[in-house]
Amino acid sequence: MTQPDMPTPPWERPPRRRTPARVPLSRERIVDAAYTILDREGYDGLSMRQVAAELGVAVSALYVHVRDKDELLQLMYNRTFEGYEIPEPDPERWREQVMDFARQARERLLSHRDLAKITMAHVPFTPELLPYVERLLAVLGAAGLPRRVLAISGDLLSTYINGFALEESLWQERYRETHDSWHKLRDEVNGYFASLPPDRFPNLVRLADIMMDESNDYRFELGVEIILRGLASYIGEPDPDEEHEAS
């Protein structure tokens, strides 16, 4: 063995460089990498090839754990629900509980770039997501909604939440490309509406100063409140299905 102060003899091989041990590939790591790509490249830039490159593996290695890109997107969708807190149904607080659910959902959808595009294209009926759907329906059902209204209430809420978040994400994408601010767009639109002929567009002119004046938080929660008030108007109404069964 060569001493520290001696040159290495030409016949002595240098020690092999140790390579770090590879972390085993798993679904969790694949989904983590997919989110990294999503945040960096957006939905259109997310591909199995990109995920494999991010992990430093061959594309074929991914298919041992994930069937295809569609399953990967479903796994990403499933993760948005992890840690969701939907409380036990309380008939006295059902509107507050649904509002809290809506806030959580929007916050999660905006936590990653273009995540709303993924959720709009997938249904939450996997074994991992059904418990959350069941709990939300339990909260709404505790309010006393008729069965037919209850059956579509969850889908109505999720469509609004996903659609609102998608619109926000599209605006964020535009901002990345143009660097236009929300305030600039708002002022331009408000000014345009105010300049319209009032005899032809009386409502647009009358509402020009407030149509886009509120924050997205306010607009989102007002939209949820409008839905909740609409649902509340059905409480106590007879359910045609139950009446038919009773007869």
UniProtKB/TrEMBL annotation:
Residue span of region Disordered: 1-22
Matches recorded under PROSITE patterns: HTH_TETR_2
Pro residues bias: start-end ranges: 1-12
Keywords associated with the record: DNA-binding, Transcription, Transcription regulation
Gene Ontology biological-process annotations: negative regulation of DNA-templated transcription
GO molecular function ontology, one term from the record: transcription cis-regulatory region binding
Positions of the HTH tetR-type domain: 24-84
Transmembrane regions listed in the UniProt entry: none
KW Transcription (keyword) present: yes
DNA-binding region range list: 47-66
UniProt protein name: Transcriptional regulator, TetR family
